[in-house]
Amino acid sequence: MAYSDIETASRDDLRELQDERLAETVQYAYDNVDFYREALDEAGVAPDDVRSVEDVSKLPFTTKEDFRDEYPDGLFAVDHGEVRRIHASSGTTGKPKIVSYTDGDLGVWREVMARSLHAAGVRPGQVVQNAYGYGLFTGGLGFHDGVEELGACVIPTGGGNTARQLDMLRDMESEVLACTPSYCLYLAEAAEERGVDPRELPLDTVVIGAEPFTDPMREEIEAALDVTAVDVYGLSEIIGPGVSIECEEAQEGLHVWEDHFLPEVVDPQTGEPVQEGEEGELVLTTLTKEALPVLRYRTGDMTALTYEECECGRTVARMDNVTGRTDDLIIVRGVNVYPSQIEEVMVDIADVAPHYRIDLYRRGNLDAMELTVEYHEDYEGGHDELERRIREELEETLEVKPDEIEVVGPGVIDRTEVGKVKRVYDHRDEE
Ligand code: DLL
Residue of the nearest CA to atom 10 in ligand 1? Predict the structure, then answer.
């Protein structure tokens, strides 16, 4: 059933392996990376103090800022001669985070991606169209290698070039499409514009990730393309895509490949571990990485963990779908708002298309929030009526009201063809 035995191992066996690998990783990082040696010394923790998974909380956190401070290669544990590949994650501000892989790391990545695709229902011989961007972004090559490792056929379309993307989907009869959720919706729309019913395409499965999306958004994708949409998660600092994925059977939480990545969830304010099932910030420790071992990385992604066996039989931990990050909280007139709250409300209104943007301004001393939403192409009513309905629905969920809601026609809001979607535009710091 599973791609590798470890996916269904007993929790005790898995724990034993993690204990061993964690102790090795801490010693390895201490011996080979000045940053970790100094951080552990400063925290008064000796590598020997970390003997088992329970001891992980003794270790100091590693943050995004540490990657930036150590730019470009201060966190590498091997000489350049042993590095076989470099990727980078751009981020919105400042220097990119440079990440590196040895031959062994690339092998692990291929293995966890093959496992992930298998869990998503992909089988050898199938055609997988890979519309994640190739290049420094980990999405393209991460999927590419995983598809080949699994023994399926990859079509490396990369991001963008929508006309050719659609031709390939139809002519090569791709059964699986890998891309961001926003691009997936865009492709469905673009197909319709060209007179192709997206539901008639041969696709069975889409493997979506790299950006947050809510459950209603997923349902929208599944209905638009008549597919199963499976959520895949990962980040460059840890390896790239393939840290965790849902199984096609249950689609109930993302299986974390715990033999390579040790997950914890902590309170984002205090850094203290939370109870199983409670929401908090995901923290990850690599257990087998050679070029770039990472101890207790604060991902900024909000999720919860469960260790209950899944109905698919896998025993590894599962994390909730990540719908937000600790840093995408927007504060409007002192009230906390998450974009995912707005998305959930809007995608639930049938006459609204799942395309929206949020603009924040400072007017005098006050924050102003403007929401632009597209109506669905089948909608025949008036703008005012729809604006009123959106306002009413939002007022039930949000503590702060948008100052303006503008309903616009289909296709007016810019689409993201390459890379990750941007929904919040904060103009408050602009003059
Ligand atoms: O986005 C790796 C990836 C590629 C994952 C393709 C899945 C598919 P980065 O560019 O380093 O790596 O961005 C990592 O993207 O910390 C999350 O905030 C977000 N993210 C990734 N996957 C998901 C997901 C890739 N399934 C950052 N749901 C992470 C929500 C996600 N957010």
Answer: 89
